């Protein structure tokens, strides 16, 4: 049987040109203030809260657009569009952004690690992850609330959209490997949603050490606590009731995500029971 024939899009052509060096002169116009760290994911893992915290730090300029998604879908917007989010921070030690799609299985982002490395070099990357089953459910509720044609969660193993966009974003170690193939391991800092929410002070102190900035805990936390709520992220989710996974479907999902989750936890040096799947 003949394989499907894929016709390259304008985005594909632009990314190919970029990786071959044809856009270096465009990026170099803004070189002095492009980001030197990026939060690469994962979606529905408190990345908005983390961005809000980092934005308060006196040594960080954080992109006014929390998710530029430039090294993927929005590459067609061009370097001038992307650079404008950082220009006012050109005198700051650190400039950053957070785009959770950078660790998705979406085709638009398959070259993201190489694009970042080619244009920004070995910058620091932050990967924030969460119990992959909880993340998956939250992500589906968010997407379903914003897209009425989104398939029901019980179709996650049959729907190409859900399997790639939702399930694929919960395969953390698989996504991490894409970056470890391109970046030195010491430039990638991994942490969990659970440790950030349960021990914000300790977790942020470690993160600030990785970023090599002052440990301004009082400045970035209010009475030692994280921002209470992600209003933007809850808009779609609140329109959709939390689904109950049927035991057979849950078992099938866990067969896919649990081995990856254990690899991720082992890599991070975290106990394998950090994420409790039995009682979800």
Q: What is the secondary structure topology, with strand pairs?
A:
Blueprint: H1 10-19, H2 24-28, E1 37-41, H3 47-56, E2 60-62, H4 79-83, E3 94-98, H5 112-120, E4 124-129, H6 132-146, H7 160-167, H8 172-180, E5 188-192, H9 193-198, H10 200-211, H11 217-220, H12 231-237, H13 247-268
Parallel strand pairs: 1-3, 1-4, 2-3, 4-5
The description of the largest β-sheet is:
5 strands, parallel
Runs with pLDDT <50, length 5+?
none
Find the CATH topology.
Answer: Rossmann fold
Please report which band the strand proportion falls in: under 5%, 5-15%, 15-25%, 25-35%, 35-45% or over 45%.
5-15%
Provide the structure class. alpha/beta
Shape annotation: globular
The sequence of SSEs as H and E is HHEHEHEHEHHHEHHHHH
Number of helices: 13
Helix content: 40-55%
What's the CATH architecture?
3-Layer(aba) Sandwich
Radius of gyration: 19 Å
The CATH class turns out to be Alpha Beta
Look at the structure and give the mean pLDDT. 93
How many beta-strand runs? 5
Spatial gap, N to C terminus: 42 Å
Strand arrangement, major sheet: 2-3-1-4-5
By CATH's scheme, which homologous superfamily applies? P-loop containing nucleotide triphosphate hydrolases
What is the number of domains? 1
Would you kindly provide a written description of the structure presented here, covering whatever features stand out?
- This protein has 280 residues and is α/β, with parallel strands linked by helices.
- It has a single domain, classed as P-loop containing nucleotide triphosphate hydrolases (Rossmann fold), CATH 3.40.50.300.
- 44% of the residues lie in helices and 9% in strands.
- It contains 13 helices and 5 strands.
- Strands 2-3-1-4-5 form a 5-stranded parallel beta sheet, with helices on both faces.
- Helix 4 links the parallel strand 2 and strand 3.
- The radius of gyration is 19 Å and the shape is globular.
- The mean pLDDT is 93.
